[in-house]
Write a structure and sequence with these properties.
alpha/beta; nine-stranded mixed beta sheet; 13 helices; 35% helix; binds ligand BES; binds manganese (II) ion; binds zinc ion
Length: 469
């Protein structure tokens, strides 16, 4: 992914509007900058003799989370202006901003919006080199921002890859890549092993595919973890969701290469935790297959047996994600003694209809003690979540006459019945993040998109760093 380099360098000065005179600008420039500051512009541009951008501190926004988000968004706008000017390198001078987190938010906005998916373009986008001048304390923290943003962008790349470039075995390969370098151990099971283990959910969905399924475990287990039992992240890895026999119609299939976003998120969170050397024992479980159809595909009325022995009547083959997640969650329950199981998945259109692209539809059982800290991490990273209830009455939707459960309710509160299905397979505290709707944007929104967003990684890393487990 070597990008061709452009020569032009631009300087970006992060300044405070009240203290402008110290930078060595000409009288004319100072006048212009002062005028822009007076108009409450977010930034202004000095084109000659070389390109410089002056970014004003958003001092009026007192709420920290809102200010950080404003700064990320301004950074994205500045980068888009500089890209149009064919800038090849951006040198940020952050010495005038007092609060380290503000400078880091600016860098985060730049790194995240520097991502371009041009793998299949003949004409490649040009790369932009980003550097920062700041005090040593900020520089130390910058390493964290760089690792985190690199992982977000890597996740976006995997989600953006079309199915033909990333099938279930491909996903397992990406999970192995560079893992041992940061102390992550990876284990993958073959199709035959999975059948022997009785992973009936994964097997059932994979039945209509010409490609093998995969199931991968990534584990980071440092010497002295703070948590006695692991946090297990389970990511939905449906590399393409055609719907199976309940085939998707209209344009509902269009974006279904993104249906492995949950797996890509879980992978990125573990990789980030490991590279930051956080003292946490974390595991990612990545069940993966496509949901296509051929003569062998699962049909409605079929009854399958899950990893834990539960029998499931299939009433809709397009409710496939919960089947793989359930097997993985049951695997965690049986073999890993988890402190907390977190499932991450593009699971339901209902989640996307409820919140659009602004937040994650979250649900939990026995995990209420994590909720305040999660909400706070959501505000801080602007990867917000909204909790829906998991009342036991919703379980009625999944009652079957012929098996232990049905895989699909009638449709109302779809994100909840889906979560109920997955939650059935563990007794551990359970947190479910339905990221359908936030994982992919057709249009750019500041530092997110167009395309995959990696939404949820910054949230979960902040949660793991800051919340008592
Ligand atoms: N992968 C889809 C959910 C989805 C929809 C993700 C839109 C991203 C954007 C999932 O497998 C699915 O098909 N869900 C169905 C479930 C239904 C059959 C109960 C849905 O939500 O329509
Ligand atoms: Mn589906
Ligand atoms: Zn799906």
């Amino acid at each position: 992914m070597e990008k061709k380099k452009l020569q032009k360098t631009a300087a970006v000065h992060l300044v405070c509007a009240q203290k402008l005179n110290s930078k060595g600008w000409s009288a004319e420039e100072s006048h212009y900058i002062g005028e822009k500051a007076g108009q409450e512009a977010d930034y202004c541009i000095l084109p000659y003799p070389r390109l410089r951008v002056v970014v004003f501190y958003p001092q009026k926004i007192e709420d920290e989370a809102a200010r950080l988000e404003k700064i990320r968004r301004v950074a994205a706008e500045v980068l888009s202006v500089l890209r149009k000017e064919k800038t090849g390198a951006v040198e940020v001078d952050g010495t005038a901003w007092r609060n380290e987190e503000d400078v880091l938010a600016f860098m985060e906005g730049l790194y995240l919006s520097s991502y371009v998916f041009d793998e299949f373009k003949t004409e490649k986008a040009s790369g932009v080199e980003i550097s920062l001048k700041a005090n040593p304390a900020v520089h130390k923290k910058l390493a964290r921002t760089q690792i985190l943003c690199h992982e977000v962008n890597r996740c976006k790349y995997l989600v953006d890859l079309p199915f033909t470039a990333l099938n279930a075995s491909g996903l397992a390969k990406w999970a192995k890549k560079d893992a041992s370098k940061s102390g992550i151990s990876v284990k993958s099971w073959t199709k035959a092993e999975l059948e022997k283990m009785g992973m009936g959910g994964l097997w059932g969905v994979n039945k209509g595919s010409v490609d093998a399924p995969s199931f991968t475990m990534m584990e980071y287990w440092p010497a002295k973890p703070k948590n006695k039992k692991p946090v297990v992240l389970v990511g939905k890895g449906v590399v393409f969701d055609a719907g199976g026999m309940n085939i998707k119609t209209g344009n509902y299939m269009e974006d279904m290469k993104t249906d492995m976003a949950g797996a890509a998120l879980a992978m990125a969170v573990v990789r980030t935790v490991a590279q930051l050397k956080l003292p946490l024992h974390v595991v990612a479980l990545l069940p993966s297959t496509d949901n296509r159809l051929n003569g062998n595909a699962l049909v409605c009325g079929d009854i399958i047996k899950m990893y834990d022995g539960t029998t499931v009547e299939i009433t809709n083959t397009d409710a496939e994600g919960r089947l793989l997640l359930a097997d993985a969650v049951a695997y965690a329950q049986k073999n890993l003694n988890p402190a907390l199981v977190v499932s991450m998945a593009t699971l339901t259109g209902a989640a996307s209809r409820a919140l659009g692209s602004e937040g994650i539809a979250a649900m939990q059982e026995k995990a209420d003690r994590y909720v305040p800290c999660l909400l706070q991490a959501g505000e801080y990273t602007h990867e917000r979540l909204c909790f829906f209830p998991m009342w036991k009455e919703y379980e009625k939707e999944l009652e079957s006459e012929v098996a232990d459960m049905k895989n699909c309710g009638k449709g109302a509160a779809g994100m909840i019945t889906a979560a109920k299905f997955v939650g059935h397979f563990t007794q551990a505290p359970f947190l479910h993040l339905d990221v359908a709707g936030v994982e992919f944007l057709h249009k750019r929104d500041a530092y997110r998109g167009p395309g995959a967003t990696g939404f949820g990684i910054r949230l979960m890393v902040r949660f793991l760093e800051n919340c008592a487990l």
